[in-house]
Amino acid sequence: MQANNERAVKGKLGEDFTADYLIKNGYDIITRNYRKPCGEIDIVASKGDILVFVEVKTRRYRSLVSGVEAVGYKKKGRIIATADCFLAEYGEEKQIRYDIAEVTVSTGDAVRVIDFRYFKDAFDTTGYETQF
């Protein structure tokens, strides 16, 4: 139980840090943790005529797999399917972009962000069937 709680705390820290980064860079946060049966999107944001679906991967320092590497084919498919649900529900008429935020946090009692990398247009819908 404690491991799940620690993971949730680190995940929330990573998502909060990413949301702050987006706001500081002129994005509006539309929603966070958008969930549907097909999956979840950590952050949905917009800037101008672009709608951005952001996957946040929070990792401990010295993790063997980077956040970007952790978003594989199946995860991308779930994100795209969930984005399709969002678009059907809210009817946003904007350009779509899929980004990945990679947040590295310290280990130990005082968990804090020690590295942050943001990948714009990290993947697209090529090779996936989409509704739109």
3D architecture notes:
It is a single chain. The chain is α+β, with helices and mostly antiparallel strands. The protein has one domain (2-123): Trna Endonuclease, Chain: A, domain 1 (3-Layer(aba) Sandwich), CATH 3.40.1350. The protein has helices spanning 2-24, 73-90; strands at 28-36, 39-47, 50-60, 95-105, 113-123. Strands 1-2-3-4-5 form a five-stranded mixed β-sheet. Strand 3, helix 2 (73-90) and strand 4 (95-105) form a beta-alpha-beta unit. The chain is globular. The termini are far apart.
In short:
GO terms for molecular function: nucleic acid binding. The protein has 132 residues and is α+β, with helices and mostly antiparallel strands.
Termini, distance in Å? 40 Å
Please report the total strand number as a whole number.
5
Helix content: 25-40%
Largest sheet: 5 strands, mixed
CATH architecture tag: 3-Layer(aba) Sandwich
- Would you give the CATH topology? Trna Endonuclease, Chain: A, domain 1
Low-confidence stretches: none
Order of helices and strands: HEEEHEE
What is the typical, i.e. mean, pLDDT? 86
Rounded Rg: 15 Å
Could you say which structural class the secondary elements and strand pairing correspond to? alpha+beta
Number of domains: 1
Just give the CATH class.
Answer: Alpha Beta
Number of helices: 2
Strand order of the largest sheet: 1-2-3-4-5
Strand content: 35-45%
Broad shape: globular
